[in-house]
Amino acid sequence: MKNLTALAFVPSLTRCATICLALVLSSCGYSAFQNARTVPRGHFGGSTGLSIVNNAFASAEGRGGFDRLGIDTNARLGLTDHMDLGFAPFQLSGLRADFKYNVLPRSARLAVAPHLGAGYAVWNEVSVLQGGLYANYRILPQVDPYIGIGYSDYFVGDYLADYSDPKHPIAHSGAGDGVLEATLGFALFGSPSSESRTRFLIEVTHWFLLNDDPGDHYAFLPNTILGLGIQY
User: Fold this and answer.
1) N or C: which terminus of the chain carries fewer CB neighbours within 10 A?
2) Are the C-beta atoms of residues 111 and 135 closer than 8 Å to each other?
3) Would the CA dihedral through 34, 178, 88, 131 be positive or negative?
4) Helix or strand or coil: residue 70?
């Protein structure tokens, strides 16, 4: 297997161009399109997909459900046989990075990977801290279901301060806006041991709201998200 030094950060031109284009065109952050399988050491990979979002706002507007679309993508670099580093656009004007570590051998049917990440967006002054756990169990060579559980804490700046009442200001709580994200997904048709590593991803994620900072004048909604993507 090629090592990181030999690779010298020069992946195939086609794969690099595909990932760069996807990064430019996306930044929604609805679906992670991630699981416990990491990119091999010295290899460059990623995932891109379409997210379809349903929440109470869409229902209240009478638009009937899954009507909000987003494009989500990330690029990943294998650092070791167990750990990779990922980058993704964040809120149009920012970047999010994360580390993921598979604690089991790459060839095992079961994969378990904790992950930690952070991001910041300049335009709307939003930062995020993230952590969680993914787990896969390959039931067939072409069928690799996975689950994920994670917590994201968003810290929103004062760009919405104009919506506040100057006579009755609300102070930031300091706890941020916390969201618990639960995911069930399937990676299909590709072989994790193949050189191409191309697989189709189907996943459903639900956001559970755990805490809200009234001082940022912003509140998340519970979201149910259907994601359809490709991992390469």
Assistant:
1) N
2) yes
3) negative
4) strand
Low-confidence ranges of the chain (pLDDT < 70): 1-29, 57-67, 159-172, 190-197
Show the tokens assigned to 163.
């919506």
Token couple for 3: 């090592």
Please tell me the pTM assigned to this model: 0.80
- Decide: 200 and 187 in contact? Cβ < 8 Å: yes
Cβ neighbours of residue 29 closer than 8 Å, sequence gap 6 or more: 70, 72, 88, 89, 90, 91, 96
Q: How many CB atoms lie within 10 A of CB 195?
A: 9
Return d(Cα 45, Cα 117) in angstroms, integer: 18
Judged by DSSP in three states, 58 sits in: helix
Angle among Cα 44, 50, 55 to the nearest 5 degrees reads 130
